Protein backbone atom coordinates (compact mmCIF):
# COMPACT_ATOMS: atom_id res chain seq x y z
CA UNK A 1 0.00 0.00 0.00
CA UNK A 2 1.48 3.41 -0.94
CA UNK A 3 2.43 5.85 1.78
CA UNK A 4 -0.12 8.66 1.86
CA UNK A 5 1.29 10.51 4.87
CA UNK A 6 2.63 14.00 4.27
CA UNK A 7 6.38 14.55 4.31
CA UNK A 8 7.37 16.83 7.16
CA UNK A 9 11.02 17.39 6.43
CA UNK A 10 12.80 18.68 9.55
CA UNK A 11 14.68 21.97 9.63
CA UNK A 12 17.80 19.80 9.70
CA UNK A 13 18.17 16.08 9.02
CA UNK A 14 21.47 14.80 10.37
CA UNK A 15 22.79 11.51 9.04
CA UNK A 16 25.53 9.89 11.11
CA UNK A 17 27.53 7.17 9.40
CA UNK A 18 29.37 4.75 11.69
CA UNK A 19 31.27 1.49 11.34
CA UNK A 20 29.16 -1.52 12.23
CA UNK A 21 30.21 -3.12 15.50
CA UNK A 22 32.45 -0.28 16.69
CA UNK A 23 30.20 2.78 16.15
CA UNK A 24 33.34 4.61 14.97
CA UNK A 25 32.33 7.61 12.82
CA UNK A 26 33.31 7.34 9.15
CA UNK A 27 34.45 10.44 7.28
CA UNK A 28 34.28 10.93 3.52
CA UNK A 29 31.19 8.85 2.74
CA UNK A 30 28.81 10.03 -0.01
CA UNK A 31 25.25 9.80 1.31
CA UNK A 32 22.20 10.05 -0.93
CA UNK A 33 18.66 11.05 -0.02
CA UNK A 34 15.63 10.01 -2.08
CA UNK A 35 12.32 11.77 -1.60
CA UNK A 36 9.51 9.71 -3.12
CA UNK A 37 7.32 12.00 -5.20
CA UNK A 38 3.54 11.73 -5.41
CA UNK A 39 3.67 12.43 -9.16
CA UNK A 40 6.27 11.78 -11.83
CA UNK A 41 9.90 11.08 -10.75
CA UNK A 42 11.41 10.82 -7.29
CA UNK A 43 14.02 13.35 -6.16
CA UNK A 44 17.48 11.80 -5.78
CA UNK A 45 19.70 14.20 -3.85
CA UNK A 46 23.34 14.02 -2.79
CA UNK A 47 23.87 16.49 0.04
CA UNK A 48 27.54 15.93 0.70
CA UNK A 49 30.23 13.76 2.19
CA UNK A 50 30.33 12.91 5.86
CA UNK A 51 32.66 15.03 7.98
CA UNK A 52 35.25 13.82 10.54
CA UNK A 53 32.42 13.07 13.01
CA UNK A 54 30.66 10.92 10.39
CA UNK A 55 27.94 13.53 9.95
CA UNK A 56 26.22 15.07 6.97
CA UNK A 57 23.66 17.80 7.68
CA UNK A 58 20.74 18.26 5.29
CA UNK A 59 18.72 21.43 5.80
CA UNK A 60 15.13 21.78 4.68
CA UNK A 61 16.11 25.01 2.89
CA UNK A 62 18.75 23.13 0.85
CA UNK A 63 16.24 20.39 -0.06
CA UNK A 64 13.64 22.96 -1.15
CA UNK A 65 16.24 24.75 -3.31
CA UNK A 66 17.38 21.46 -4.86
CA UNK A 67 13.79 20.46 -5.68
CA UNK A 68 13.13 23.85 -7.27
CA UNK A 69 16.30 23.56 -9.40
CA UNK A 70 15.50 20.00 -10.51
CA UNK A 71 11.83 20.70 -11.28
CA UNK A 72 12.74 23.94 -13.08
CA UNK A 73 15.39 22.27 -15.24
CA UNK A 74 13.40 19.10 -16.04
CA UNK A 75 9.84 20.48 -16.20
CA UNK A 76 8.38 17.41 -17.92
CA UNK A 77 9.92 14.93 -15.48
CA UNK A 78 9.25 16.43 -12.04
CA UNK A 79 6.24 18.15 -10.54
CA UNK A 80 5.84 17.30 -6.84
CA UNK A 81 6.61 19.92 -4.22
CA UNK A 82 8.37 18.89 -1.00
CA UNK A 83 5.11 18.68 0.93
CA UNK A 84 3.65 16.40 -1.75
CA UNK A 85 6.36 13.77 -1.30
CA UNK A 86 5.86 10.60 0.71
CA UNK A 87 6.75 10.72 4.38
CA UNK A 88 8.92 7.67 3.73
CA UNK A 89 12.36 8.72 2.48
CA UNK A 90 15.42 6.64 1.65
CA UNK A 91 18.92 7.39 2.90
CA UNK A 92 21.53 5.53 0.91
CA UNK A 93 25.27 5.08 1.09
CA UNK A 94 26.11 4.97 -2.59
CA UNK A 95 27.75 1.94 -4.17
CA UNK A 96 31.02 2.38 -6.03
CA UNK A 97 29.13 1.99 -9.34
CA UNK A 98 26.54 4.66 -8.42
CA UNK A 99 29.27 7.00 -7.23
CA UNK A 100 31.12 6.68 -10.55
CA UNK A 101 27.87 7.52 -12.37
CA UNK A 102 27.37 10.66 -10.27
CA UNK A 103 30.96 11.74 -10.91
CA UNK A 104 30.44 11.29 -14.67
CA UNK A 105 27.20 13.31 -14.54
CA UNK A 106 28.85 16.11 -12.53
CA UNK A 107 31.66 16.28 -15.07
CA UNK A 108 29.30 16.20 -18.07
CA UNK A 109 26.96 18.87 -16.66
CA UNK A 110 29.63 20.98 -14.95
CA UNK A 111 28.02 24.25 -16.14
CA UNK A 112 24.50 23.34 -14.95
CA UNK A 113 23.12 24.27 -11.50
CA UNK A 114 23.96 21.67 -8.81
CA UNK A 115 20.37 20.30 -8.86
CA UNK A 116 20.64 18.45 -5.58
CA UNK A 117 24.24 17.30 -5.89
CA UNK A 118 26.31 19.29 -3.41
CA UNK A 119 29.82 17.80 -3.70
CA UNK A 120 32.03 18.53 -6.69
CA UNK A 121 33.25 15.73 -8.96
CA UNK A 122 36.67 16.09 -7.32
CA UNK A 123 35.21 15.62 -3.84
CA UNK A 124 33.18 12.62 -4.97
CA UNK A 125 36.27 10.96 -6.44
CA UNK A 126 37.85 11.02 -2.95
CA UNK A 127 34.81 9.44 -1.26
CA UNK A 128 35.57 6.37 0.85
CA UNK A 129 32.41 4.47 -0.20
CA UNK A 130 34.53 1.78 -1.91
CA UNK A 131 35.76 0.66 1.55
CA UNK A 132 32.24 -0.18 2.78
CA UNK A 133 29.22 -2.19 1.67
CA UNK A 134 26.47 0.04 0.23
CA UNK A 135 23.41 0.38 2.44
CA UNK A 136 19.94 1.89 2.15
CA UNK A 137 17.82 2.86 5.15
CA UNK A 138 14.17 3.86 5.03
CA UNK A 139 13.15 6.63 7.39
CA UNK A 140 9.71 8.08 8.11
CA UNK A 141 9.63 11.87 8.25
CA UNK A 142 6.06 12.59 9.35
CA UNK A 143 6.53 14.68 12.49
CA UNK A 144 7.46 18.38 12.56
CA UNK A 145 10.89 17.90 14.13
CA UNK A 146 13.35 20.76 14.26
CA UNK A 147 16.32 18.37 14.11
CA UNK A 148 16.24 14.67 13.30
CA UNK A 149 19.16 12.25 13.64
CA UNK A 150 19.44 9.03 11.63
CA UNK A 151 22.34 6.64 12.25
CA UNK A 152 23.53 4.38 9.45
CA UNK A 153 25.93 1.56 10.36
CA UNK A 154 28.20 0.30 7.58
CA UNK A 155 29.96 -3.00 7.20
CA UNK A 156 33.57 -2.72 6.01
CA UNK A 157 34.35 -4.50 2.75
CA UNK A 158 36.64 -7.47 2.98
CA UNK A 159 39.83 -6.48 1.18
CA UNK A 160 41.01 -9.18 -1.23
CA UNK A 161 44.77 -9.29 -1.68
Q: What key phrases describe this protein's structure?
A:
single chain; 161 residues; alpha+beta; 4-stranded antiparallel beta sheet; globular
What is the count of helical runs? 3
Rg: 16 Å
The percent of residues in helical segments reads 10-25%
State the major sheet: 4 strands, antiparallel
| Total beta-strand segments | 7
Your description of this structure?
The chain is of the alpha+beta class and 161 residues long. It is 20% helix and 29% strand. It contains three helices and seven strands. The protein has helices at 60-73, 96-108, 121-125, and strands at residues 12-19, 30-35, 43-49, 55-59, 88-93, 135-140, 147-154. The protein has a four-stranded antiparallel β-sheet with strand order 3-2-5-6. A three-stranded mixed β-sheet has the order 4-1-7. A hairpin with a 7-residue loop joins strand 2 (30-35) and strand 3 (43-49). The protein is globular, with a radius of gyration of 16 Å. The protein starts with 11 loop residues before the first strand and ends in a 7-residue tail after the last strand.
List the helices and strands and how they pair.
Layout (H helix, E strand, L loop, with lengths): L11 E8 L10 E6 L7 E7 L5 E5 H14 L14 E6 L2 H13 L12 H5 L9 E6 L6 E8 L7
Parallel strand pairs: 1-7
Antiparallel strand pairs: 1-4, 2-3, 2-5, 5-6
In short:
With 161 residues, the chain is α+β, with helices and mostly antiparallel strands. Helix content is 20%, strand content 29%. A four-stranded antiparallel beta sheet has the order 3-2-5-6. Strands 4-1-7 form a three-stranded mixed beta sheet.
